[in-house]
From TrEMBL, chains A, B:
Domain of life: Bacteria
Active site: 73 (proton donor/acceptor), 186 (proton donor/acceptor)
Annotated organism of origin: Neobittarella massiliensis (ex Bilen et al. 2018)
HAMAP family: Glu_racemase
Stated family: Belongs to the aspartate/glutamate racemases family.
Descriptive protein name: Glutamate racemase
Length: 272, 272
């Protein structure tokens, strides 16, 4: 049993879709979230910039005394390498491995589509992870960079005409390649699942990384005896840190719905 | 006569639309451009973050020995205050004053529309500047945050269906308010002038801040005897500094067309 919080970080607030799944699966765990809203978006940054940011963001969480670090960001998870993960003094969990395994298990036709930011797609991280799970499954990927600002600007209704038009453009490759499973490889994208489902029809299973990342976290906590005990009314509040005072409450409600509950504090990005 | 370069900075590469106008009007001037591509976009950041970034960005230009600083960014120009400008050891020029004066002079019906990022519109900077020029002119403003990622992702054709749909949504207030003049209050927006013109029709005059900012720079150089002499073949090359190795050449061609010519170097954002 370990009462220390789980640390979750993301470029901005998209990682809250992962927090939502963590809280649903592991209600006894306290969350410390770090969203780098002063430097969002990460998806178009270079590798060296991303490695610097990942080090600063995880360093902040470690100073908060976390027992495990979740990179709730497809871009960061696709960028950090083994040496980064080995250097951390606590277990690490990205959004790639369990998500890729779930997609490889879900496809009946042996073809998985991947959508994400430019950095995530260029990294080939999901495709490699799928290949490790099942070399017979083929993967096709498409960067969908405009989905992130569409979500953050509230173009999220299932029948939104702008988002539908963009989705039809981005997702035409899914139809052409006849995949039956699609990884939503950016933490913003589950918000657009209704639009994506409408564009693709019922024949394509959508894989939400938050769901499988939460399961991977649960597995690590069990294996390493790090799970928190049930604390009832004594459960400490979650803490949310952001680097820019954006309109957190309204954006948080886009990502987490009613699941959001906790204190929000601003951190100076120059102190990271 | 002063051979030192003009320093131009922006959150990213949108300021290149201002550089294009500077080079057309002042071909003897050398330009040093700083684009903070590691921290773009600025338009949704808080005031305190923006003030920090403006200080770092202009400090970098001053270390390059510039004779004048242009904030080629609607967001920064709307955020910095008199104390910031007075603290600079060289003249400063933002994109607000001359642009607002041009719009106030252009309107025949006494109504000017303003579009920009969320930060620019919330600041009220253009509206105040218009009021200073002519208190009888009324101004209406609308944030168009999605225009920036649309430009950066190449949705810039005059008949692009996605950008047209977004523009119809954003610009409906222009029709309702019956303005006849519209300030493109973000340096990205002149790229979308053909789409905006198609949506609004010929009855609305579009005001490109780059044009009027270049005229203001020319005026400052003349008044303060800072203009560069004609140097013919001895004209030094322009220098472009960015904080993240984005796909500079292709994006620069979106903003500047064939006018781009110079060396590009990357600066570590942690050294600012």
């Amino acid at each position: 049993m370990d009462t220390r919080p789980i640390g979750v970080f993301d470029s901005g607030l998209g990682g809250l879709t992962v927090v939502k799944q963590l809280k649903a699966l592991l209600p006894s765990e306290q969350i410390v979230y770090f969203g780098d809203t002063a430097r969002v978006p990460y998806g178009t940054r270079s590798r060296s910039t991303l490695m610097t940011y990942a080090g600063q963001d995880s360093g902040f969480l470690l100073r908060q005394g976390v027992k495990l670090i979740v990179a709730a960001c497809g871009t960061i998870s696709s960028t950090v390498d083994d040496s980064f993960i080995r250097a951390l003094p606590v277990p690490y969990c990205g959004v790639i491995e369990h998500t890729a395994a779930a997609a490889a298990a879900a496809t009946r036709v042996g073809k998985v589509g991947i959508i994400g930011t430019t950095a995530t797609v260029n990294s080939g991280s999901f495709a490699r992870a799928i290949h490790r799970c099942d070399p017979k499954v083929t993967a096709v990927a498409r960067a969908c960079p405009l989905f992130v600002p569409l979500v953050e600007n509230g173009y999220i209704r299932p029948n939104d005409p702008v988002t539908t038009l963009v989705a039809q453009d981005y997702l035409s490759f899914i139809r052409e390649k006849r995949v039956d499973t699609l990884i939503l490889g950016c933490t913003h994208f589950p918000i657009l699942a209704p639009v994506i489902s409408r564009v693709l029809g019922d024949g394509v299973t959508l894989i939400d990384p938050g769901v499988y990342t939460a399961r991977q976290v649960a597995q690590i906590l069990n294996e390493q005896h790090l799970a928190a005990p049930y604390r009832g009314d004594g459960q400490p509040a979650d803490a949310y840190y952001i680097t820019d005072q954006s309109d957190f409450q309204s954006v948080a409600s886009i990502f987490m719905g009613d699941a959001f509950c906790g204190q929000v504090q601003t951190v100076d990005v120059n102190d990271l």
